[in-house]
Inverse folding.
């Protein structure tokens, strides 16, 4: 039986050294020791989709099987070490997927009378479903199994965003549905005596078991399972790796994975930046914009005859709004004034965005005992998600308008070498993390501006991967570049509503100078960037610094 599978997070630093951090589940202290399920993060997840908004590459999945104590987990971690600077990796253990037990089965398990090495002990359909979701770049929630309680817990572990998934377990190659999901299948071959010696040392030292108990379980369950179910799966493997002295094999595997990831790379941001110039219907706002008859009188929409993207909603260009933008665009505006007027503008934008939520009639009794027929929100779940850090200035406006709203965040930054957007971190509300609830959730997606639109594009794709409906996403922004990425967004996500305060004319291509360290070494090469003009500068920096 495998070791405790409670997940830990391992963040790989710039030198690819794992830094293990403690996690807590249901207020239970978790010992700082090696765990089976791990999430490893390095320089982030690059785009996994094309300009039409659809995924073009699945996660790369590796399946590792072998006998108990053959060294499967060690091989998985060695592969990660050899890969070096890589996108997010998940190491997924089959031990998470033991079936839920009856009280009678739990009692037998405590007496070591349950065969946990038999294929029937694993919930293979659930295992395949979770792995299929991860491979297809969708979120999933894997079960958590407690070996102390010999039971699957009610809680689950949320996973999303892996570019490489390594699945390991004694029966990882047993089920045909699982094998169909692997891009690379590995079997760890190890001498039986060595596996028994490792198991004895592990179970006695780490689990407090007796030698007699370990041997009894090994002879009764582990060895027959290995002979009947585990060893025969070696014929499905693409490569057989020795359980010790396997550095050459691991280097070959890592080289193969790096090659496959390189083949899947895409140059996304330049296409977004150049989309407006080659678009047959560039974004344009007529001098006298047409008001949609179906929308509130104050809503100014892009003229549908000149631009098919009718879900771009621009605030009325009143003298007051123009005055606010004049103050915000002035580089000499004090930080206090910038924060004040940014918060005011954010409130205007969120109030406008609220007009596009569904409402139902509601009758209330007023203090003068007269019935009033009004409206109330007709939504089950509503939340906000901001793109750190430029989306932060819009959060206060959202909280002013909906004071108890749940909020989450996405950290999307540009790769220092290529300029491509990278997903570095996400913290989403629970109503998005669970797919059955995400379908009924309305999301305010917050970002300061849409220039190339690369970050906005990635954020929308992330929400769709979680099951949020496209027409339930309302993107709120201060500025939109007329000929920038909005031209791609309108085609890829035509049902997403975008609420903004102004449309700027230019998206200028320029170069970001190379960054030198104090020792004269180049930390980041010069790269191409695109700047919105006239723009408001780096809104997040001006707001927070």
């Amino acid at each position: 039986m495998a070791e405790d599978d409670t997940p830990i997070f391992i963040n790989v630093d710039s030198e690819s050294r794992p830094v293990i951090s403690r996690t807590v589940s249901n207020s239970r202290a978790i010992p700082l020791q090696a765990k089976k399920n791990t999430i490893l993060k390095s320089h982030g997840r690059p785009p996994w989709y094309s300009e039409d908004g659809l995924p073009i590459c699945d996660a790369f999945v590796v399946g590792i099987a072998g006998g108990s104590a053959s060294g499967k987990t060690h091989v998985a971690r060695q592969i990660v070490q050899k890969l070096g600077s890589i996108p997010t990796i998940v190491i997924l253990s089959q031990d998470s997927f033991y079936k839920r037990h009856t009280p009678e089965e739990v009692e037998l398990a405590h007496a070591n009378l349950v065969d946990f090495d038999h294929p029937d002990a694993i919930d293979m359909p659930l295992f395949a479903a979770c792995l299929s979701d991860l491979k297809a770049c969708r979120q999933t929630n894997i079960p958590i199994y407690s070996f102390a309680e010999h039971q699957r817990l009610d809680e689950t572990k949320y996973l999303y965003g892996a570019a490489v998934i390594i699945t390991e377990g004694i029966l990882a190659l047993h089920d045909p549905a699982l094998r169909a999901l692997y891009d690379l299948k590995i079997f760890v071959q190890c001498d039986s005596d060595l596996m028994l010696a490792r198991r004895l040392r592990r179970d006695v030292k780490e689990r407090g078991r007796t030698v007699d108990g370990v041997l009894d379980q090994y002879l009764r369950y582990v060895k027959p399972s290995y002979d009947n179910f585990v060893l025969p799966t070696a014929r499905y493997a693409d490569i057989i790796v020795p359980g010790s002295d396997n550095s050459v094999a691991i280097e070959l595997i890592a080289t193969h994975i790096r090659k496959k990831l390189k083949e899947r790379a895409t140059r996304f941001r330049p296409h977004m930046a150049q989309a407006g110039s080659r678009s047959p219907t560039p974004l344009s706002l007529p001098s006298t914009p047409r008001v949609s008859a179906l929308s509130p009188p104050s809503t100014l929409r892009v003229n549908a005859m000149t631009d098919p993207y009718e879900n771009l909603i621009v605030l009325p260009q009143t003298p007051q709004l123009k005055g606010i933008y004049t103050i915000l665009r002035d580089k000499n505006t004090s930080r206090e004034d910038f924060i004040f007027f940014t918060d005011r503008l954010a409130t205007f934008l969120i109030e406008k965005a609220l007009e596009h939520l569904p409402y139902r009639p509601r009758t209330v009794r007023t203090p003068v005992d007269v019935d009033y027929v009004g409206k109330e929100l007709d939504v089950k779940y509503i939340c906000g998600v901001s793109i750190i850090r430029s989306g932060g200035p819009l959060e206060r406006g959202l909280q002013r308008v909906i004071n108890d709203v749940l909020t989450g965040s996405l950290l999307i930054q540009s790769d220092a070498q290529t300029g491509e957007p990278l997903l570095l971190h996400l913290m989403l509300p629970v109503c998005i993390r669970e797919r059955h609830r995400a379908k009924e959730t309305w999301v305010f997606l917050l970002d300061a501006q849409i220039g190339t639109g690369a970050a906005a594009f990635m954020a929308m794709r992330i929400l769709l991967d979680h099951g949020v409906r496209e027409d339930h996403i309302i993107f709120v922004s201060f500025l939109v570049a007329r000929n920038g990425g909005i031209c791609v967004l309108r085609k890829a996500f035509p049902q997403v509503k975008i609420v903004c305060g102004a449309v700027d004319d230019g998206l200028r291509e320029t170069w970001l100078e190379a960054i030198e360290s104090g020792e004269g070494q180049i930390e980041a090469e010069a790269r191409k960037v695109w700047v919105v003009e006239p723009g408001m500068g780096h809104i997040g920096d001006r707001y927070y610094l």
Confidence is low (pLDDT under 50) at residues 1-34, 285-308.
